[in-house]
Write a structure and sequence with these properties.
five-stranded antiparallel beta sheet, 136 residues, globular, single chain
Length: 136
């Protein structure tokens, strides 16, 4: 089991928790006709967020992933590998539980910096925070 977080394009998502959760359930059917390991189909804000995020939490898959040679024998790198699923209006992430606290802080900080929303999928209360700090 992994620790899950999501960042999303605030201008294209619902503003109430009930509507947001319905949008999220639809999102996670993964029915878009895109390569979820690539970023060209997502918004500029999410692309910028992703490019900065992978500096600390490298992508596990796709063209942004480190090579097997880079990973082999590097336990710290391997522990930080993250499964990113890039949709047109959101990026879903699966982190190792061993880095959950650092991942939370990192993702929240970059969400604020890049003006995108944040959803703590793994939290009991489903914390959803808009870029202006408003919780829904």
């Amino acid at each position: 089991m992994s620790y899950y977080l999501l960042v999303f394009e605030n201008t294209r998502t619902p503003k109430t928790k009930k509507e947001f959760m319905s949008w999220y359930e639809n999102l996670t059917t993964w029915s878009e006709d895109v390569d979820y390991n690539e970023i060209s189909h997502t918004t500029t804000s999410l692309q910028n967020w992703f490019q900065e995020s992978i500096k600390s939490f490298p992508a596990m898959n796709g063209s942004f992933a480190p090579s097997d040679e880079e990973i082999n024998g590097n336990e710290e790198l391997e522990e930080r590998l993250t499964d990113y699923c890039v949709a047109s209006n959101a990026i879903y992430m699966a982190f190792a539980w061993s880095v959950a606290e650092k991942a939370y802080e990192h993702v929240r900080m970059l969400a604020t910096k890049h003006n995108v929303g944040f959803f703590n999928v793994s939290s009991e209360n489903g914390e959803i925070i808009l870029p202006d700090g408003l919780k829904i």
